[in-house]
Amino acid sequence: MSDCIFCKIANHEIPTSLVYEDDLVAAFRDMNPQAPVHVLVVPKEHYTNIVDEVPAQTLAAMAHAVKEVARIEGVLESGFRVIANTGEDAGQTVHHLHWHVLGGVHMSEGML
Ligand code: DGP
After folding, report:
1. Would you say the CB of residue 5 lies under 6 angstroms from ligand 1?
2. Among 32, 50, 66, 85, who pairs with 90 as Cys (CB 3.0-4.6 Å)?
C-alpha cells in the first residue's frame, strides 16, 4: 500500500535498522518503546490486521520471526509478551498488521 509507513519500512523504502528480516517478514524497534525490548514484527505484504485473511505461511513466518527477535534481543529464556492490537477498541493506530514483542522487564499483571 503506497501510503503505509510499515510497508515502506518493511520494504526498505524508509531506512530503518532492522532487527530481523526474511522474505516475508521484517522486525524493527518501536519508535515509542514501552519496555527495554520493544520490537514490531510485520509482514512485507500489506494486511490491515490479524483478521485480514492473512495467509498461513505469513503467520508462520511472523511466529518464526518472534522467536528470532526474542533470541537476538536476549529475552528468549526470560520471557516476553506478544500483542496484536486489532481495531479501534484495542487502540490499533497503524493499520498494517504488526505484533509487538515486549520484554526485558518483569511485567505486572493487568489486562493480561
Ligand atoms: P498500535 O497500532 O497501537 O498497535 O501501535 C503502533 C506502534 O507503532 C506504536 O507503538 C508506535 C509505532 N510506530 C508508529 N509509527 C512508527 C514508525 O514510523 N517507526 C517505528 N519504528 N515505529 C512506529
Report:
1. yes
2. 85
